[in-house]
């Protein structure tokens, strides 16, 4: 994993552009990302967010290819809670890459940032996404209804958490 930087814009845009159908179903920003310039804007926001102490976002690699992104969506150092988001380009799915990346991200959250709670929220029907916190031993807390509007419908979110003192993270 590597902190996202402006130089990633071109490769990151290509990755999104080649995986639109796969990503659009679960991520609300996909259709608004139409050019390398849009990706540059996103990357500048991410870098500013990190500088403001709101948590890092990382490029995920398969061999030396940038294959996806993971990071902290919300990051509150007062309550010491962080929520995690992630996605992979379609052709990089099924290899265990994101489970490994989230294991590393959790270690950064509890280790470097001394978080108390890390949360993952997945659309209840997004079984591939739910499998990640489940593989890593997160606790299933329940469902929040109509939590997100994505791809023309509201989706409920399944909420998972891991606390600093519980670190099973085994598969
Ligand atoms: C969510 C998403 C990242 C999951 O991708 P994924 O490839 O299933 O997740 P991983 O990289 O952890 O790989 C797990 C898969 O690799 C397999 N695998 C192979 N080796 C593995 C290993 N060493 N460890 C874990 N899994 C391994 C697993 O069996 C699993 O495949 P399966 O679902 O066919 O059983 C992907 O579906 C995605 O980008 N979706 C669109 C965006 C999205 O939904 N983001 C999340 C919003 S909450």
What can be said about this structure in brief?
The chain has 171 residues and is an alpha+beta fold. The chain contains five helices and seven strands; from the N terminus they run E-H-H-H-E-E-E-H-E-H-E-E.
Count all strands and give the number.
Answer: 7
Straight-line N-to-C gap: 20 Å
Oligomer: single chain
What CATH calls the topology is: Aminopeptidase
Overall mean pLDDT stands at: 95
Low-confidence stretches: none
Q: Report the biggest beta sheet as strand number plus sense, adding barrel if it closes.
A: 7 strands, mixed
Strand order of the largest sheet: 1-2-3-4-5-7-6
Give the tally of structural domains: 1
Q: From N to C, what is the helix and strand string?
A: EHHHEEEHEHEE
CATH class: Alpha Beta
- CATH homology superfamily: Gcn5-related N-acetyltransferase (GNAT)
Q: Assign a percent range to the helix content.
A: 25-40%
CATH architecture level-2 label: 3-Layer(aba) Sandwich
Question: Which percent range describes the beta-strand content?
Answer: 25-35%
Q: Helical segment tally?
A: 5
Bound molecules: coenzyme A
Please tell me what the overall shape is.
globular
Strands, helices and their partners?
Layout: E1 2-3, H1 9-17, H2 20-24, H3 36-51, E2 57-62, E3 65-76, E4 81-88, H4 97-111, E5 117-123, H5 127-135, E6 139-150, E7 153-163
Parallel strand pairs: 4-5
Antiparallel strand pairs: 1-2, 2-3, 3-4, 5-7, 6-7
The structure holds coenzyme A.
């Amino acid at each position: 994993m590597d902190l996202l930087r402006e130089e990633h814009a071109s490769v990151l845009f290509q990755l999104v552009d080649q995986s639109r159908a796969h990503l659009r179903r679960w991520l609300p920003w996909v259709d608004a990302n139409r050019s390398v310039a849009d990706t540059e804007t996103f990357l500048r926001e991410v870098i500013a967010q990190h500088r403001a102490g709101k948590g890092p976002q990382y490029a995920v690699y398969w061999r030396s290819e940038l294959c996806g992104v993971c990071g902290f969506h919300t990051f509150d150092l007062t309550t010491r809670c962080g929520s995690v988001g992630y996605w992979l380009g379609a052709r990089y799915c099924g290899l265990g890459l994101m489970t490994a990346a989230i294991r590393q991200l959790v270690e950064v959250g509890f280790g470097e940032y001394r978080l108390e709670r890390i949360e993952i929220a997945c659309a209840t029907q997004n079984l591939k996404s739910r499998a990640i916190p489940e593989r890593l031993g997160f606790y299933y807390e329940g469902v929040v209804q109509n939590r997100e509007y994505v791809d023309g419908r509201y989706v409920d979110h399944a909420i998972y958490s891991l606390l600093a003192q519980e670190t099973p993270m085994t598969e």
